[in-house]
């Protein structure tokens, strides 16, 4: 049994903010999530796989490949950083080895190479964090699945030419805690990417990972929308409606599957529909991946699937910078901590099982107590539950920031994708501000804090990792 301390009491002087409670009874706040009883799951195109592999439709990242135990498979594509590149090259042996790297690679200016990395006595090798997927004896290649030889001569499965790994951060079948399909800047490090089958969508569309789900866009990456005024597989948008909305055209001869159908607007003029709802683009969208059209009553962005709502007590908060963020019950924005070390392996340091040296340096000059004051954990009852598997209650050792062991004095906090979430002390008296966004190195993308963005008017709708 874990003992609980009272280090997470609410900040004095903070009043309830004008924040929207997340509930199906509040459509404006609930629009970023789908109901737990929703059947919506992203369709995918089936393809041949070697024995022992499967497809799991994960809650957040959609369909992913997994091994026989349900562990998600990842790739590590080569990516350029400020002073070089690291990752795996297509059709080449893995660069993730069993060597424990002890010094920085110097890829992130202004920091030089050959600086000693922290916590060398417990630092893992790349393969300890990212076990390579090893084929069984006699395994045969099929489709996009191939077998490559590692630098040590051991065979390894690859998909699409890239070596495959599992993640030690994934504890249950369907977990995707090791990486993400969301886009990230070069300053965010070389992030591992979950691998999966192609989505079941026509070639005129793409699916983009946003912070709340799998957003459907057209081939030019502009959002598509549906309208409450339409009937199933019937468009009622005519005349003046077409001054604002453009039906998404469909070809004459298509195979209707995966929930995709064709609506005939007039002889020879077809329109795409998804799950029975005709699709449109918004004529006044000024940027890709937009939510602007959904500001008009009755119109909605389209997702192949959305995330489930966060735990009770979280809210949606308008922010002065433009957009909306996830917030606590007092309207204080929620923050995520990002961290990749500067080794060639680009190991994540953003979870409580990794070194805490980087986080403590940023938020407290090495002092855990100062860190807790500047970026307090979001408290949770030890027995609190969430309908979303992405949210959990985590027991943290307050003296180290690591996950607490049984019998240790611990604080219980909310975690998202197995990483604690935080508020920022500088926001306490000013609901609607995100003053902690970008706190850290490289505007928080490399080693620092980013607001949990649900909608950003000026940038892409993701975590801006």
UniProtKB/TrEMBL annotation:
InterPro entries per the UniProt record, alphabetical: Lipoprotein_repeat (IPR005297)
Source organism superkingdom: Bacteria
GO biological process, one term: alkane catabolic process
UniProt protein name: Secreted repeat protein with Y-X4-D motif
Gene source species: Woeseia oceani
